[in-house]
């Protein structure tokens, strides 16, 4: 099997709520969790490498959220 692509969060649907905050759907969260679990299984990542994968995905999603809402809304 080939290795799944990195930064799935770059492809998840992100919407801005009426409160100005970014949100993703429950189905998108489930897809992200399935992606991480599958990647760990396919590549045989150990605990630290799995944690690095989660950190990478979290960082990518954070960047998208800030870009969508702007730094003035994110408290940055």
What does it look like?
Strand 1 and strand 2 form a beta hairpin. The chain is mainly alpha-helical and 76 residues long. The chain has three helices and two strands; from the N terminus they run E-E-H-H-H.
Topology, element by element:
Blueprint: E1 15-16, E2 22-23, H1 26-43, H2 47-69, H3 71-74
Antiparallel strand pairs: 1-2
Average pLDDT, all residues: 80
Helical residues, percent: 55-70%
Count of DSSP H/I helices: 3
Structural class: mainly alpha
Stretches where pLDDT falls below 50 for ≥5 residues?
Answer: none
Order of helices and strands: EEHHH
- What is the approximate shape? elongated
- Percent of sequence in beta strands: 5-15%
Distance between the termini: 41 Å
* Strand line-up in the sheet with most strands: 1-2
Biggest sheet: strands, sense, closure? Answer: 2 strands, antiparallel
> What radius of gyration results from the CA coordinates?
14 Å
What is the total tally of β strands?
A: 2
Summarize the structure.
A two-stranded antiparallel sheet has the order 1-2. Helix content is 59%, strand content 5%. A hairpin with a 5-residue loop joins strand 1 (15-16) and strand 2.
